[in-house]
Design goal:
Blueprint (H helix, E strand, L loop, with lengths): L2 H16 L2 E2 L9 E5 L2 E5 L7 E3 L12 H5 L4 E2 L9 E5 L5 E5 L2 E2 L21 E3 L3
Antiparallel strand pairs: 1-2, 2-3, 4-9, 5-7, 6-7, 7-8
């Protein structure tokens, strides 16, 4: 790794830490915990809130097509391995997605900035993912 890449990565982690996103050892790279108006939630590498969908089965995603356009799945790399309470599920489209305690994780396109939780309670089936 070049020193420039190291510094860039370090700057991102420091910036996210300043936004209130903490990163822990038993989480996938780029997933952390953020403090929001509804308390602590799981957040992606940009500090954006992650959500779960009540219609998902344990380890399976029911959010496909237009649903996945509005609620982008938290993608996992093809070779990603489970860590702590996080697992990797196979989506119907052949991609991989991170799940927390068996529940697939998603972003929400209407959250505009880190810490937003506008998807919490949406249609009574979307919830912030709590650590």
């Amino acid at each position: 790794m070049t020193m420039g890449l190291f510094r860039s990565g370090l700057a991102v982690v420091v910036g996210l830490a300043l936004m209130g996103v903490a990163f822990a050892g038993d989480m996938p790279a780029g997933v952390g915990v953020a403090e929001t108006s509804v308390g602590k939630v799981l957040a992606d590498h940009k500090g954006m809130t992650l959500y779960t969908f009540d219609k998902d089965g344990n380890g399976t995603s029911a959010c496909t097509g237009p649903c996945a356009e509005n609620w982008p799945p938290l993608q996992a790399a093809a070779g990603a391995a489970p860590t702590g309470d996080f697992s990797v599920i196979d989506r119907a489209d052949g991609t991989k997605q991170w799940a927390y305690k068996g529940m697939p994780l998603y972003g929400w396109i209407k959250d505009g900035k880190p810490g937003d939780v506008t998807g919490d309670g949406f249609k009574g089936v979307w919830r912030v993912a709590r650590p």
